[in-house]
Amino acid sequence: MTCKIIQTPRAPAAIGPYSQGIVTPPFLFVSGQLGMIPESGELVSDNPADQARQAIRNMREIVRAAGAELIHVTSVDVFITDMAKFGEFNEVYQEFFSEHKPARAVVEVSALPKGACVEIKCIAVLPV
Question: Looking at residue 69, which CATH number applies to its domain?
Answer without folding.
Answer: 3.30.1330.40
